[in-house]
Amino acid sequence: MDAPRPLETRIAPLAGQIAVVGSGIAGLMTALELAPRPVVLVTKAALGRESSSLWAQGGIAASVGPEDDPEQHVADTLRAGAGLCDPEAARGILSQARVAIETLEHYGVRFDRDETGAYALGLEAAHGRHRILHAGGDGSGAAITEALVAAVLNTPSITCLTEIEARRVCVVDGAVTGLWIQNGHEAAILPTAHVVLATGGLGGLYDATTNPRGNVGQGVMMAARAGAVLTDLEFVQFHPTALDVPRAPLALVSEAVRGAGAWLINGAGVRFMADVPGAELAPRDVVARAIQAQISQGERVYLDATRTIGAGFAAKFPIIHRFCLEAGIDPACDPIPVRPAAHYYMGGIATDLSGRSSVPGLWAVGECGCTGLHGANRLASNSLLEAVVMGRSAARDIAANGQLMMQTVPQTAPPILPPQEANEVRAIVSKSLGMIRDGAGIEAALCALRPLAMGDGPEADAAIAALGVACFAALRKESRGGHARSDFPGTDAQPIRRRMTLDEIFTLSGGHLAPATKQPEIVT
Question: Which of 71, 104, 211, 286 fits a disulfide with 203 by CB distance 3.0 to 4.6 angstroms?
Answer without folding.
Answer: 211
